[in-house]
């Protein structure tokens, strides 16, 4: 199985390659990718250099151009596709129908992968993208069980890629409007979810309060850990109960399910975390490379102990085992 790993900086890309990543995905430092945070991502020159570094060591580079273009500003997204091809990228990861059509027409030799942002979660949708735009791989949304993934793979002729570690998104991929509601900025259009310029921390009595766009997301005991205020992971009162209404503050860890995912026909395993450090990336890549190597060699994969690298030092298998409330 192929291991697809994140890189938010050139240093993280080199760390991922050196740790054994088969593929690295990254994006440009603008609104064309869904991790458009200050200090992250690549200039055009940095991408070209990174592609050279990866290719010299047998790794591939995939460029995420997976936001939805703003009407009248499509040129930014068109140039991103052209620049990715010029830099030697092995594929682009796209979500927008118009951008897929543009790329298929103007850059037919550039391999196209369908982003999780497209939320293609059934054979009919996936086969449409394959037929209309010659999409070669689809990144499946994080709302499917292993059994559902296996059923999908029986009815499609393209590769499938699934997330196995990192942050979770409980909303329909590419359709969430929570960040837009709270801050006016969206991961789907602007490439940022819960942008830092809208985050505020304060102390009220014996509590630390974290707010996003003026909305209180967390209250924790003063001096305790204050989670980053992402709205879907906030702690709210609903009726007579107070708790994590949308999602607990935990990370996805499907490492124990990798053999089942392989049996389900999955081609590639994806690690989330382009906003993470190069040290984090290197540790996760080495751990999962040991798993994929074991599978390739017919050995039982090692059990991974990754809790300390998970959000809140806790993890879940998410929808793969359908244990979400």
Automatic annotation (TrEMBL):
The keyword Zinc does not apply. Keywords: 4Fe-4S, Hydrolase, Iron, Iron-sulfur, Metal-binding, Protease, Ubiquinone biosynthesis. It comes from the Bacteria. [4Fe-4S] cluster binds at residues 169, 176, 193, 232. GO terms for biological process: proteolysis; ubiquinone biosynthetic process. InterPro entries: Peptidase_U32, RNA/ubiquinone_mod_enzymes, UbiU. Signal peptide: none annotated. Pathway: Cofactor biosynthesis; ubiquinone biosynthesis. The keyword Nucleotide-binding does not apply. Its cofactor is [4Fe-4S] cluster. GO terms for molecular function: 4 iron, 4 sulfur cluster binding; metal ion binding; peptidase activity. Required for O(2)-independent ubiquinone (coenzyme Q) biosynthesis. Together with UbiV, is essential for the C6-hydroxylation reaction in the oxygen-independent ubiquinone biosynthesis pathway. Belongs to the peptidase U32 family. UbiU subfamily. Forms a heterodimer with UbiV. This is Ubiquinone biosynthesis protein UbiU.
